[in-house]
Amino acid sequence: SGTGKELVANIIHANSPRSQGPMVKVNCSAIPDTLVESELFGYERGAFTGATTSRKGLFEAAHRGTIFLDEVADLSVTAQAKILRVLQTGEIQKIGAERTMKVDVRVLSGTHKNLRECVAGSTFREDLYYRLNVVPIEVPPLRERPHDIPLLVEFFVRQTCAKNNMRTKPIDDEVMWGLQRHRWPGNVRELQNVIERALIMSGERVTVRDLPEEVLAEEEAGGGDRTSALKEFRDSAEREYIIAALKRNHGNISQTAMVLAVGRTYLHRRMAVLSITKKDFFS
User: Fold this and answer.
1) Burial call 228-249: b when 16+ CB within 10 Å, e when fewer
2) HSE toward the beta carbon, residue 41, CA cutoff 13 A
3) 151 and 184 Cβ atoms separated by less than 8 Å
């Protein structure tokens, strides 16, 4: 989740001969099983109670364009059978209709699950798997492509500043290093949120003080208690800087926070993390 599967689908559609046609996105996990048929294929007037007008389904809406079935593994086995029929025949049948109709649709699908395992566990149809698995594209997690991070950061900076009517801010090199070391369990979506928060909360430039602690932590899953030399240096330099500021302001926390341009609560938290006590600035 959050690797950018929908973005890849958008790019494929935009660079295809179907780019002038519709791009219809379907969140398969959000459609109740009882509504799958009416949502995907539509219905005729009078097909059931409440059907006062005819309605196009999503496959018909995507005619001569692309339909993206996101989280396709979350469809029920019954719904999978209906999708398989469309892929095999290129035809749909609205609820209440007597005839089928042809649709010219490119089908893209996405999932964060391992479909082979789903097939082995009988939660995903094997025949549908082979129908969909014609040209597989793996979108790896962000931790496996740290070289993408500088480009993504540049994009999110422009996007966030434009959205919030802000001037573009420079990003310190140490910040970029920290971003590339983080494992990003939330992938690109998490990176976007971190950059947006850092830009809004920072001053004239984004520094390491504007990043959440979990991003700066070097420890990796299963990696034990390892701390990078750069993080040790940063913590040591920050500790000395805060102690010097506290001494200049005679230990006044509020005044020191104001001088450092940080919140009082944040300063207290950093003092606790860096083990700064009164004896350090009153000695």
Assistant:
1) eeebeebbeebbeebbebbeeb
2) 26
3) no
Q: Is 75 helix (H, G, I), strand (E, B) or coil?
A: coil
Sign of CA dihedral 192, 196, 201, 204: positive
Instruction: Place 225 in a pLDDT band, splitting at 50, 70 and 90.
Output: very low
Q: Of 175, 13, 221, give the one whose Cα is nearest residue 107.
A: 13
Cα separation, 134 vs 130, in Å, equals 7
Rounded (5°) CA angle 41-42-44: 135
Q: What is the pLDDT of residues 26-53, one digit of tens each?
A: 999 998 888 888 999 988 888 788 888 8
Q: Nearest Cα to 80, choosing from 54, 44, 42, 118?
A: 118
Amino acid at residue number 155: F
For 123, the token pair is 């939660």
| Strand 65-70 versus strand 105-110 pairing type | parallel
Give 122-159 as a DSSP string: TSS-HHHHHHHTTS------GGG-GGGHHHHHHHHHHH
DSSP 208: G
**Largest Cα span, the chain:** 90
- Cα–Cα separations (whole angstroms), residue 176 to 125, 154, 200: 44, 11, 17
**Residue 180: closest CA among 152, 203, 202:** 152
pLDDT tens track for 128-158: 999 999 999 998 899 888 888 999 999 999 9
